[in-house]
């Protein structure tokens, strides 16, 4: 029998980030994975800005950017011809320290996260499977199997990050309503003899009941192809790339040479009925799966992990009330439901066979999208939506007050400073803190000191005003970089009441 505070089932990006955040917050988890190593046929290609901001808190965002490829442009194709180009570049300039879309394949991504976890002193237990578990009220007793041997693991909490066929979700008896797209998808790693995606650009190809994406990969110099198998071949169980080569090459304008690997899969759109049952939690694909439209899936799972990790660490270390951990499900399940509905609509519009869908692909998207994105406000709106920097928790029990344009539950807006400094630098502490943009009153300083809360006072600048902050207002910031309490008048009592209500203490 072995004991751990947190048992994580699944070593994909969600489970790895959960383990990394917990470890840096002072909780050493145990992480198991039934497979023998990182995934090979990975489908997720895009790392969004919000994920990179989390990685900056953990200390390795620059390494992820170095290994990936920032995308400068998207080429839109329809019916085998390029119809327009959308400039991306630093589309979110001034909104994030990472104002771009990063191409970084999930297999490379998982290896990097695994390296970071090993360096932090936690080893992934490969070929180890969750057999069953029981929540006794004050702990979870799990049976694990490796090879032919079984052991019992006693954990304070169990986290299911084990994908669409989650053993944790099934063990909890939690429903997974939704559906499965009729299309079969493929993913392949190929050498492009001609065409393909070059440098810092990717191809997005649409057609009736078809879809194709082509991304460059820095680590191999190859191209990653993702798309829909032709309907005439969708029923085959023995498909190879050669079977779909003609249709793929025609759709995306590529001539393929060597094929490193090829795989097919089904895509679902589902959200679990609950993300928490007792001492067990669901995160990532175990809780929600949806179409690849917008490159949101993996990034949403990583967002789940960060949201859950700081709450688990705080409760385990007696630095917050249990009610803080209770906010995980309402915060994340609302976003998952909205995301699944949105990506489903976008996917159906993009690949539909009707006349309206064809007009959308051939005329509206190629002509209207570049025109609209020429306006700064539209570019900003599109960036915030896709990058997940707009994601907020207005209905969370942890979200209180407003000051300027910022409400409790909003992501703390990024404010660049001089000499490379900014207001995100203190977030590396992974702890609660107070931000003031302007001068802090003596009463507030004393209240923060009494609560052992770090207080960071930043100069009032045009950047702070543009970000929607209010001069001299109080912003209590959570360990994940979201505003918990916003108060326009630096009300020291409001700060004290919030701290007392949730029994918050810092790690310092």
Describe the structure.
By secondary structure, this protein is of the alpha/beta class. It has a domain at 400-501: Glutaredoxin, CATH 3.40.30.120. 32% of the residues lie in helices and 29% in strands. The chain has helices at residues 13-24, 49-58, 61-67, 106-119, 167-172, 241-252, 297-316, 322-325, 328-351, 355-372, 376-387, 442-450, 462-466, 492-501; strands at residues 2-9, 30-33, 46-47, 69-71, 73-78, 81-87, 101-103, 125-126, 128-135, 140-146, 149-160, 178-194, 201-207, 210-216, 223-228, 255-271, 276-277, 280-282, 288-289, 400-403, 406-407, 433-437, 455-458, 474-477, 483-487. The strands form four sheets. Strands 1, 2, 8, 9, 10, 11, 17 and 18 form an eight-stranded mixed beta sheet that branches. A hairpin with a 2-residue loop joins strand 17 and strand 18 (280-282). Helix 1 runs parallel beside helix 7. The chain is globular, with a radius of gyration of 23 Å. The two termini are 33 Å apart. The model has no long low-confidence stretch (mean pLDDT 90).
